[in-house]
Design a protein that fits this description.
The structure holds two protein chains of two kinds. Chain A is mostly helical. Chain A is built from seven helices and one strand. Chain B is elongated, with a radius of gyration of 21 Å. Chain B has two domains: about 170 residues, FAD/NAD(P)-binding domain; about 150 residues, 3-Layer(bba) Sandwich (FAD/NAD(P)-binding domain), CATH 3.50.50.60. Chain B is α/β, with parallel strands linked by helices. The chains are: A mainly alpha, B alpha/beta. The interface between A and B is medium-sized, with 18 and 16 residues. Strand 1 of chain A pairs parallel with strand 16 of chain B. The structure holds iron/sulfur cluster (SF4) (3 copies). One iron/sulfur cluster binds next to strand 11 and helix 4 of chain B. One iron/sulfur cluster (SF4) binds next to helix 2 of chain A.
Chain lengths: ~110, ~350
C-alpha cells in the first residue's frame, strides 16, 4: 500500500549538542597537525583523484570534524594515498596521515557499533 | 597657571605617549581626562595580545616617563573648545578654562553598544556578555556564568558592531579577531575542560605574531574556529544560550547550546571624538576624526594648531596608538618651532 499522510522530514541541521566528537578528538591527539587546518581547500585542489572521481578530501575533512561519519568510509576509499595534498598544505597538516587515521578510526567505530 | 604650550584631550595610550615626548621637549603640557585616572581602555584590560604583556605594567611604564612639564586633570569632561585669536586654543571644562598654543585630540573610541544587535540577546539574556566583560573575568581569574556555574562551552562571535551595514559600520575594528584568540587561550588556561567555538566571517590576523597565536590556539588550546555568522541567539530554560549559524565550509546549518556567549564588540568614535568632529567639521563617514592627509600629515588637520593621535581617527592597536602619539608630538614640535 502506498504511504500517505504527513511525515516530518529529517532536519539537516548539525546539532552540536548531541553529536559525538570523540573520533575528532582522537584524531586531534594522534595527528596533531590536523588541528591547524584552516579550511583553505588547497589539498582538494591539487588532488589527482578529485579530477576523475567525485571526491573531495576537503569535504571529508569537514564532514569528519563535524562528526558526520555516514558517507565517509566510502568517500575516503577513493583516496590513493599519493600524498600530493600534503605537499601544498599551507598549515603543514599531515593530510596523508590524517586520511589514514580517519579510515582507521571510522573502521574501529564501525566495529564497536556492530 | 592656566596657560600651556599644548593641551591634550584624552589620557589614553596615544595621549600619554604624546605627553611623554612633549614633556621631554620641554613643552608645558596639560592632559585633560574625563575618567578618574589616566590610561584609557588600558585600565580595563588584563593582558595584551599577542604576547600577553601586562596592561598594568605598560600603564606604569608610561606613567613613570611623564616628567614635571606634564600636568594632568582627571574627571574633567570637555564642555567646549574654541579656536580663539591667532591659533590660541581655549578648552572649557565644568571646573575651569585652559588655554594653549596647540591642541592635540586623543579622545579615542568607545566599545560598540551590543544592545543594538538585539538578535544576539545582549542585555536580554544574562549569559550573553561582551569581550570587555570577559576580560574583567579573566582579570579576576574567575570565569563563571551569571548564575555562578562553571561554563563547559563558550562561543565567541566576531564582528559585533563592525563590518555590519545594519549598524552603519562598514569598517573592520582590527583588534577583535586577535583579541578573541587571546581571550580563548586565557580562558582555556583557567578552565582546562572548557570547549570553545569561535564564529567568524573572516579571520584577520594582520599583525606580527598574530597568525602564530591563532595557530597555537588551534593546536594547543583546541579552539574550534567555525566560518559562519551567528544569526540569532535564544535562551534555554536553564539560562544557557542556543545559537544558530551556517557552517559555511560545509553549507549546512548548525545549532549549539553554550553556557556563555561572548560578543567581540567593535570600536566606535567616542562621545568626545564625535563632539569634536562635528564642532570642527572634520568628521569621517563614521564620526571618527579626519586627518589632513593619510600618508604624510596624518597627525595634522585642516585647522592650524589642531592635531590628532590614536583611535579618535580610526581603530588602531595599542602599539600603533603609542607610535601615533609619538608622531603627533613630533608634528607639534615642528609646528611650535616654526610658529
Ligand atoms: S593523498 Fe589522497 S587526498 Fe591527497 S592528493 Fe593524493 S589522492 Fe588526493
Ligand atoms: S590544504 Fe591544509 S589547511 Fe588547507 S584545507 Fe587542506 S588540510 Fe586544511
Ligand atoms: S578584527 Fe576581526 S572581529 Fe574585528 S571587525 Fe575585523 S574581522 Fe571583525
Amino acid at each position: 500500500m502506498k504511504d500517505f499522510g504527513y511525515s516530518i522530514s529529517k532536519g539537516r541541521t548539525l546539532n552540536y549538542d548531541n553529536s559525538d566528537f570523540s573520533l575528532k578528538k582522537t584524531l586531534e591527539h594522534d595527528v596533531v597537525s590536523y588541528c591547524r587546518c584552516i579550511g583553505c581547500g588547497a589539498c582538494a585542489s591539487t588532488c589527482s583523484a578529485a579530477k576523475f572521481t567525485d571526491f573531495s578530501i576537503f569535504k571529508c575533512n569537514m564532514l569528519f570534524r563535524n562528526a558526520k561519519y555516514d558517507e565517509l568510509e566510502q568517500e575516503l576509499s577513493k583516496c590513493m594515498l599519493c600524498g600530493k595534498c600534503t605537499l601544498v598544505c599551507p598549515r603543514g597538516v599531515n593530510t596523508r596521515g590524517m586520511i589514514l587515521e580517519m579510515r582507521n578510526l571510522i573502521e574501529k567505530n564501525k566495529n564497536n557499533n556492530e | 597657571m592656566n596657560h600651556f604650550d599644548v593641551i591634550i584631550i584624552g589620557g589614553g595610550p596615544a595621549g600619554m605617549q604624546a605627553a611623554i615626548r612633549l614633556g621631554n621637549f620641554n613643552y608645558k603640557t596639560l592632559i585633560i581626562e574625563k575618567e578618574k585616572s589616566i590610561g584609557g581602555k588600558l585600565t580595563q584590560w588584563d593582558k595584551l595580545f599577542p604576547d600577553f604583556y601586562s596592561a598594568e605594567e605598560l600603564l606604569q611604564n608610561l606613567t613613570r616617563q611623564l616628567n614635571e612639564n606634564v600636568s594632568i586633570l582627571t574627571e574633567q569632561e570637555v564642555k567646549d573648545i574654541e579656536n580663539t585669536s591667532e591659533n590660541e586654543w581655549t578648552v572649557k571644562t565644568a571646573d575651569g578654562q585652559y588655554s594653549s598654543k596647540a591642541l592635540l585630540i586623543a579622545s579615542g573610541y568607545d566599545f560598540f553598544n551590543a544592545k543594538r544587535k538585539e538578535e544576539f540577546g545582549y542585555g536580554i539574556y544574562p549569559n550573553v556578555i561582551t569581550s570587555v566583560e570577559l576580560e574583567a573575568m579573566i582579570k579576576n581569574g574567575k570565569i563563571t556564568t551569571l548564575d555562578g556555574r562553571i561554563p563547559q562551552k563558550i562561543a565567541y562571535l566576531q564582528c559585533v558592531g563592525s563590518r555590519d551595514e545594519k549598524v552603519g559600520n562598514h569598517y573592520c575594528s582590527i583588534n577583535c579577531c586577535i583579541c578573541a584568540v587571546k581571550q580563548s587561550i586565557e580562558v582555556k588556561e583557567l578552565l582546562p575542560d572548557v570547549e570553545q567555538y569561535c564564529f567568524y566571517m573572516d579571520l584577520r590576523m594582520a599583525g606580527q605574531h598574530y597568525e602564530e597565536l591563532y595557530r597555537t590556539s588551534q593546536e594547543k588550546y583546541h579552539v574550534q574556529f567555525i566560518r559562519g555568522r551567528i544569526s540569532e541567539a535564544a535562551s534555554t530554560f536553564d539560562n544557557r544560550i542556543q545559537i544558530k549559524a551556517e557552517n559555511t565550509l560545509l553549507s549546512t546549518p548548525l545549532k549549539l547550546t553554550v553556557d556563555l556567549f561572548v560578543l567581540m564588540v567593535g570600536m566606535e568614535a567616542s562621545e568626545t571624538t564625535r563632539f569634536i568632529s562635528q564642532k570642527f567639521n572634520i568628521s569621517n563617514e563614521y564620526g571618527f576624526l579626519q586627518s589632513k592627509q593619510r600618508y604624510c600629515s596624518d597627525n595634522e588637520t585642516e585647522i592650524k594648531g589642531l592635531f590628532l593621535a590614536g583611535t579618535c581617527k580610526r581603530p588602531m592597536t595599542i602599539p600603533k596608538s603609542l607610535k601615533d602619539g609619538d608622531a603627533a608630538a613630533n608634528a607639534i614640535f615642528d609646528y611650535l618651532k616654526n610658529r
